[in-house]
Amino acid sequence: MHPPEPLTWTPPAKDDDQPPAQVRRILRLFRPYRGRLGVVGLLVGAASLVSVASPFMLREILDTAIPEGRTGLLTLLALGMIVAAVMTSVFGVLQTLISTTVGQRVMHDLRTAVYSQLQQMPLAFFTRTRTGEVQSRIANDIGGMQATVTSTATSLVSNLTAVIATVVAMLALDWRLTIVTLLLLPVFIAISRRVGRERKRITTQRQKQMAAMAATVTESLSVSGILLGRTMGRADSLTDSFAKESERLVDLEVRSSMAGRWRMSIIGIVMAAMPAVIYWAAGFVLQGGGPTISIGTLVAFVSLQQGLFRPAVSLLSTGVDMQTSLALFQRIFEYLDLPVDITEPAKPVRLDKIRGEVRFDGVTFAYDRNQAAPTLDNLDVTVPAGGSLAVVGSTGSGKSTLSYLVPRLYDVTAGRVTLDGIDVRDLDFDTLARAVGVVSQETYLFHASVGDNLRFAKPDATDSEIEAAARAAQIHEHIASLPDGYNTLVGERGYRFSGGEKQRLAIARTILRDPPVLILDEATSALDTRTERAVQQAIDALSAGRTTITIAHRLSTVRDADEIVVLESGRIAERGSHDELLGLDGRYTALVRRDAEAAAPIHRGARATAPATP
Predict the structure, then answer these.
(1) C-alpha separations of 40 from 37, 287, 319 in Å
(2) What are the pLDDT digits (tens) for 83-140?
(3) Which end of the chain is more exposed for a tag (fewer CB within 10 A), N or C?
(4) Locate the ABC transmembrane type-1 domain: which residues (predicted)?
């Protein structure tokens, strides 16, 4: 029986008012690439200086070269403006190339970090979390921040440099017109901050909805989901449910797209109107008897002003995008900040030769601290190297939980589990993975070829080794009969193979791994009697010479075990050999009788359908 756990995983509560800390954490992601970003900064600075030079050359053309008829100067200035445009474009292409490369590397680092973190999470996390939710975090959330990550650093540096250079140039042309221009910037900043907060809130809701829809797709469009939906006549209902999820996403996408759109359009209107304001202000200055402003200066100033507003608004837009991306980063950081309960010790023990003695020494385990009673309570069991232990009991007695403690799918709450006298918590993960093999009732096969699925246990296995493992598992003849043999695709979760065939493939995979300790977690409980016999033969071949712990549902599979332990509510109710336990006429005997009664109708049905003997 699988442990009772909460149905869904809920992320820890976060304080949304901590953007500075989040921004610092985001900036740390770029730290390994600061050299490349330094080059980008140089390119940006050079591009800004070159672009600012163009208005000054334009002023000289209008005020000096054309009025005075100096064609040589006119040609030189015109060529200078062309060269400036070319250099700005070249610098822009180079900075885009470098910044995009850096951004994609950061995205790669994030994806890898999240995947690595999830690989370390305890089994309980995945039993509480929908698969689609996990996929959405890696695909949708990290993918959603791509534009920001790949362009934000460059945009910030280039636009900030452009704004500073342009303001200095405008002051050099006319400080009074510059003040008129800068008076509007605080209004722009206030508008963009408000828009950013609104988009961040909507983005958080949108990403949650995308995760919910991804989970629905993953569950309902898997092979199992399709089979269940069609056989239950719920295909239309599932479609309606998906349509409702999609409809909610449509609403959030529209709201996200339109958030602050009217406010930002005000900025665009003001930008378009500013040249007229500058011309009007210049006219008032002249009429008021102020210093004369030349036509060249006025045109150059308006050109600079437009050059100021473009990067200024881009900076504001970057701020809005960063507010939006903070919501996505927060969802990613939630995964990166998950506590890893099962870790390697600072100085792990590595065993080169493993005998295979397993000992449960005062083992107590609870899935939740708030449990009224622990799932396992103070168990003491020893399985000598090469010996066999069978664990039986009613549903919920803690049989599977006991087996999960050996490969450290969970860690004990109290006591310890040892391998060759060493606490499994002190072993390095590689030693533990080499030492313990698990064959469970729920066999998982990748959507790959038979050969690739077997090689997952031993990537460097030769064809002859794979065939030998398949023969030992009683599955080679079937594989050889397939048109593509070991190159046959097994289909999603192995749906091209029957339950017994999948079990034998899993056994062949474990044989290839060759672990000295074997955990058999109800490996034949879901099979019919005929298939069970074939799988049992493969298990017998696999168990030979190994320390074997069998979690049994059908007691016929454990009669020959060296020791049988009967669990009841997490405690050992009885222990001994098959004959010794039958002599006690207790819990084990009752379980044997129950098994016999359950099997009797099957045998009677088989006799009823058998042909008459002449």
Answers:
(1) 5, 46, 20
(2) 988 998 888 888 888 888 888 888 888 888 888 888 777 777 777 776 667 777 777 6
(3) C
(4) 39-324
Instruction: Spell out the residues 6+ positions from residue 29 whose beta carbon is closer than 8 angstroms to its own.
Output: 106, 109, 110
SS3 (DSSP) at 334:
helix
pLDDT band at 361 (very low <50, low <70, confident <90, very high): very high
29 Ramachandran zone, left/alpha/beta (phi>0; psi -120 to 50): alpha
User: Distances in Å between the alpha carbon of 504 and those of 470, 473, 479, 499, 515?
Assistant: 8, 5, 11, 9, 16
Cβ atoms of residues 123 and 438 within 8 Å:
no
Question: Please, are residues 492 and 218 in contact by the beta-carbon 8 Å criterion?
Answer: no
Using DSSP's 3-state secondary structure scheme, residue 543 falls into helix
Contacts 24+ apart (CB under 8 A), 301-304: 301/55, 301/170, 301/173, 301/174, 301/177, 302/275, 302/278, 303/54, 303/55, 303/58, 304/52, 304/55, 304/166, 304/169, 304/170, 304/173
* Mean pLDDT, the chain, whole residue set: 77
Residue 488 contacts residue 448 (beta carbons within 8 Å): no
Name the phi and psi angles at 255, rounded to 5: -65, -40
- In sequence order, which residues have a C-beta less than 8 Å from that of residue 131 and are 6 or more positions away? 215, 218, 219
Q: In degrees rounded to 5, what are phi and psi of residue 584?
A: -75, -25
Nearest C-alpha neighbor of 398 from the set 532, 569, 199? 569
Q: Per mean pLDDT, which range of 153-167, 325-339, 510-524 is the poorest?
A: 153-167
pLDDT in tens, 278-323: 777 777 766 665 566 777 777 777 777 776 766 766 666 666 666 6
Per-residue pLDDT band at 197 (split at 50, 70, 90): low
Contact (CB, 8 A) for 509 and 456: yes
pLDDT in tens, 370-385: 777 888 999 999 999 9
Separation of alpha carbons 198 and 195, rounded Å: 5
User: Quick one: how many helices (H) and strands (E) in the chain?
Assistant: 22, 10
Nearest Cα to Cα of residue 565 among 410, 363, 413, 427: 363
Check: CB of residue 566 under 8 Å from CB of residue 581. yes
Q: What tokens were used for 141?
A: 């959330």
Using one digit for the tens of pLDDT, what is the confidence trace for 474-489? 888 889 998 889 998 8
Show the tokens assigned to 93.
């292409």
